């Protein structure tokens, strides 16, 4: 009977297909597909639970030296070396540690050379400039002038009263008279005429210059003096700012050089406002 039962054709049991109304969701999920999906889901959940447990038990003061040279990528969350470390590694591979050290020393020597040059130039400018009237915020003194009538007060001209150029009328210091400016302008015109081929005729022409032309030259001289003074103050300001930036760069290079030396150390203060970090070395008994 058993053999006969096997010989009889049996009904073929087909797997149920996805209903036509749900065909947009693709093939109907079978039990084997469900088990794969469930195992994958529970594996991810177990990993997340382990990470949460580690984060809850983590020491907030935990520190590794690798934290100084690595950072977390915000896009994929992986740990990567910082750009500065990668750049230094590439430079060290191409040049070698000895060549890299020599380059750092040369940078430090160049910065100190520029500092000395700027310091000499600043001292030279400070000796020639006295900072009189350079700060507009300082309190200005009053100079009261008495005249005979209200008409004279109304028509009062500061430049003509002090016998100076209009460009120097607002000054309370170094206010040259018109005669001095005319004399200087005559000297300048004589120097210019001496450089030409017909210097004799032009020299006589410069000596016989009219007063109107002398006054015009005096105004130009006053403008050039004021412009040169403003340029000198601007140069002094720029050089002082560069002196500060060079001092910060020198401090960074010196700190970097000391940190790479041997000895146990700890960071006392983080870098801020352009200044390098502060380190404290462990005391070591001299041999």
Q: Which regions contain 5 or more consecutive residues with pLDDT less than 50?
A: 197-209
- Overall form: elongated
Helix content: 55-70%
Describe the sheet with the most strands. Answer: 2 strands, antiparallel
Question: What is the CA-CA span between the terminal residues?
Answer: 104 Å
Percent range for β-strand residues: 5-15%
Strand order of the largest sheet: 1-2
Written account of the structure:
The chain starts with a helix and ends in a 6-residue tail after the last strand. The strands form 2 sheets. It has a two-stranded antiparallel ribbon. Strands 3-4 form a two-stranded antiparallel sheet. It has helices at residues 2-7, 31-56, 83-95, 97-128, 150-154, 158-161, 178-194, 199-207, 211-259; strands spanning 70-72, 79-81, 265-269, 278-281. The protein has 287 residues and is mainly alpha-helical. Residues 197-209 have low confidence and may be disordered. α3 crosses α4. A hairpin with an 8-residue loop joins β3 and β4 (278-281). The chain is elongated, with a radius of gyration of 43 Å. The chain has 9 helices and 4 strands.
Write the layout of secondary structure elements.
Elements lengths: L1 H6 L23 H26 L13 E3 L6 E3 L1 H13 L1 H32 L21 H5 L3 H4 L16 H17 L4 H9 L3 H49 L5 E5 L8 E4 L6
Antiparallel strand pairs: 1-2, 3-4
Helix pairs in contact: 3-4, 4-9, 7-8, 7-9
